[in-house]
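lol forgot to send this yesterday, sorry. struct tokens for the thing we talked abt
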């Protein structure tokens, strides 16, 4: 992934803070410090580059009278479109017309992307064209020419397909075709009727986007099969003690004993997880990027650990994540999976032995290079600081979380000792 740095000048509680995009991003720390704001900026950046940002740039260069298109897109143009569009976007996304959002973007790597796209018209007698295709296209990207077939002859569609494909792959090493958002309290809206969805989606852009994504996610797609498909299916069934189904536009949980209940009547943990699991069930094979708010919500610690394993396997199948989290269980498991990634690179045999001993699938590890973790806290003057957490063999040093756990354990021991001392005195009396 190319270096893409984000500098937030002014957005909610965040002022003059900076972070870098990565396939997996973790924002953590105390509440009310702007973790979600940073998460939404990361989501905006990825979804815009893979969506309407490039479309705006190409539209300004597109010649509707031409039969072929030649144009250039610079990283400076992409940065400018991202900067100019973010405030209006966030005002709609957060439902606040007065919120200020001033953010700059810096994209590393190639500065200029040059394109030429045209339809190949001389195809009579070309037996290589499959019958289901109507046209053949040629494009040149930075001097290299390739061809492909299409079911349509829409030049604009092909120009955007090539621009999105080449630039997204150049920046992210993946063609991220689906960027769902999993907002706070998402479980409250799964399986609801159209009237409820319309009321929610008309008031706040975040939930409008979530519900649009969810409607796509519950429908089966022509997904690309992967070697890990069997693992994902079994992992999801273990999490749910059953499987999710969509029948006549209504979602259900079908339990392992055959009983079927409406998703609206399922446990909170199931409802919170269901959108993500529907996406994996129906869209696995697509390159996706999830903006995931508090994945631990309503989950028992055992389920949090299982979810972390599923996330690691997803990351190894070209799926990106941006997380906010307060859970030490979830973070500790991610840390273990990062350490497993180091172990795998150093000694594959020991990695395999440990996976076998734990009953862990060998997709469940995390490469440290794919992770950026940021800790949010206030300095002595009350200003929010965002600390880039280093990642080494020991994993991510989430010291503040583990300090709380250690302090609780220490207090537990002190209380137990005091109770034991009183009990001893009572027995002697």
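and heres what i got for the seq, position by position
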């Amino acid at each position: 992934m190319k270096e893409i740095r984000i500098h937030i000048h002014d957005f909610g509680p965040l002022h003059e803070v900076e972070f870098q995009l990565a396939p997996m991003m973790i924002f953590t720390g105390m509440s009310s410090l702007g973790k979600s704001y940073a998460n939404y900026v990361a989501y905006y950046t990825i979804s815009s580059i893979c969506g309407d940002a490039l479309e705006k740039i190409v539209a300004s260069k597109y010649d509707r009278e031409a039969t072929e298109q030649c144009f250039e897109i610079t990283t400076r143009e992409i940065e400018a479109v991202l900067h100019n569009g973010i405030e209006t976007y966030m005002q709609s996304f957060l439902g606040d017309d007065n919120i200020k959002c001033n953010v700059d973007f810096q994209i590393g790597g190639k500065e200029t992307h040059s394109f030429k796209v045209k339809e190949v018209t001389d195809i009579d007698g070309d037996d290589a064209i499959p019958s289901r295709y109507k046209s053949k296209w040629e494009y040149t990207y930075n001097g290299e020419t390739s061809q492909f077939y299409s079911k349509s002859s829409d030049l604009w569609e092909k120009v955007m397909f090539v621009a999105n494909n080449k630039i997204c792959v150049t920046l992210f090493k993946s063609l991220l075709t689906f960027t769902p958002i999993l907002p706070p309290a998402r479980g409250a809206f799964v399986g609801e009727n159209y009237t409820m969805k319309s009321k929610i989606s008309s008031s706040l852009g975040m939930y409008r986007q979530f519900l649009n994504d969810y409607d796509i996610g519950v429908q089966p797609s022509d997904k690309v099969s992967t070697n890990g498909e069997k693992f994902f299916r079994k992992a999801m069934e273990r999490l749910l003690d059953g499987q999710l189904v969509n029948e006549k536009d209504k979602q259900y949980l079908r339990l392992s004993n055959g009983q079927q209940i409406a998703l609206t009547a399922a446990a909170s943990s199931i409802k919170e997880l269901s959108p993500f699991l529907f996406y994996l069930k129906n869209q696995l094979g697509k390159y996706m990027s999830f903006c995931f708010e508090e994945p631990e919500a309503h989950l028992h610690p055992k389920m949090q650990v299982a979810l972390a394993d599923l996330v690691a396997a997803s990351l190894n199948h070209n799926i990106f994540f941006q997380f906010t989290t307060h859970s030490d269980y979830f973070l500790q498991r991610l840390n273990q999976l990062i350490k497993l990634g180091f172990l795998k690179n150093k000694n594959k045999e020991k990695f395999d032995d440990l996976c076998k001993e734990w009953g862990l699938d060998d997709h469940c590890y995390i490469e440290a290079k794919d992770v950026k973790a940021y800790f949010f806290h206030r300095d002595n003057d009350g200003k929010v600081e965002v600390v880039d957490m280093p990642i080494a063999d020991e994993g991510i040093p989430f010291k503040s979380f583990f300090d709380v756990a250690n302090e609780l354990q220490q207090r537990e021991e002190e209380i137990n000792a005091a109770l034991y001392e009183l009990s001893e005195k009572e027995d002697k009396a």
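The first helix runs from residue 35 to 49. anyway ping me if u want another try
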